[in-house]
């Protein structure tokens, strides 16, 4: 598996994965991220095919935020999500971040477990955060800056 920066040619694959796992973000966001914070836009490639992506940015000084992390359903459970998250954490650390924050749907038990496995813990709930009225679970990871 290859973990590398997003390139504009990856756009159709990223949008396809987004549609399959979330189907809620405007594709325009992803081009915006590429133009404004490309350092935090990373893809996982397997046999020449983009199978997952993560998008993150520095929200405040010292705080990295994960906007979106997704792996194509056919490739989940093979370590791609973990590899993408670790790469992004390394980038945030290099930018001096001390923590990473994110929101995840309360019903998304699998993703919450995934993040907990990577050291995230729940810091709160935002009621009706999503357009369909679902609550978001806020999670945080403290970065070990000595690593
Ligand atoms: C959450 C997600 C990114 C994880 O990526 P992934 O490539 O499947 O994850 P990994 O293969 O690195 O798995 C790491 C851990 O995830 C969890 N996990 C993976 N597959 C799982 C499954 N079928 N059921 C429950 N937990 C599972 C486990 O804790 C696993 O640990 P293990 O390897 O010790 O079993 C991926 O499942 C996904 O795209 N989900 C849909 C989109 C989403 O929910 N994104 C997160 C919200 S922003």
TrEMBL record:
Pfam family, one: Acetyltransf_1
EC number: 2.3.1.-
PANTHER family noted in UniProt: ACETYLTRANSFERASE, N-ACETYLTRANSFERASE DOMAIN-CONTAINING PROTEIN
InterPro entries in UniProt: AcTrfase_GNAT_prd, AcTrfase_RimI/Ard1, Acyl_CoA_acyltransferase, GNAT_dom, YpeA/RimI_acetyltransf
Molecular function (Gene Ontology), one example: N-acetyltransferase activity
NCBIfam families for the chain: rimI (TIGR01575)
Keywords annotated in UniProt: Acyltransferase, Cytoplasm, Transferase
Name listed for the protein in its UniProt record: Putative enzyme
Family recorded in the similarity comment: Belongs to the acetyltransferase family. RimI subfamily.
Domain N-acetyltransferase: 1-144
Top-rank lineage group of the source organism: Archaea
């Amino acid at each position: 598996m290859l973990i590398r920066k997003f390139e504009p040619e990856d756009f159709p694959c990223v949008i396809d994965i987004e549609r399959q796992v979330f189907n809620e973000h405007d594709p325009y966001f992803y081009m915006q991220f590429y133009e404004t914070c490309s350092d935090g836009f990373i893809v996982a490639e397997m046999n020449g095919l983009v199978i997952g992506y993560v998008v993150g940015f520095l929200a405040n000084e010292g705080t990295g935020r994960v906007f979106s992390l997704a792996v194509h359903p056919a490739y989940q459970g093979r370590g791609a999500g973990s590899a993408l998250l670790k790469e992004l954490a390394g980038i945030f650390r290099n930018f001096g971040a001390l923590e990473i924050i994110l929101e995840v749907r309360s019903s998304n038990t699998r993703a919450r477990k995934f993040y907990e496995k990577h050291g995230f813990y729940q810091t709160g709930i935002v009621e009706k955060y999503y357009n369909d009225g679902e609550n978001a679970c806020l999670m945080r990871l403290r970065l070990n800056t000595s690593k």
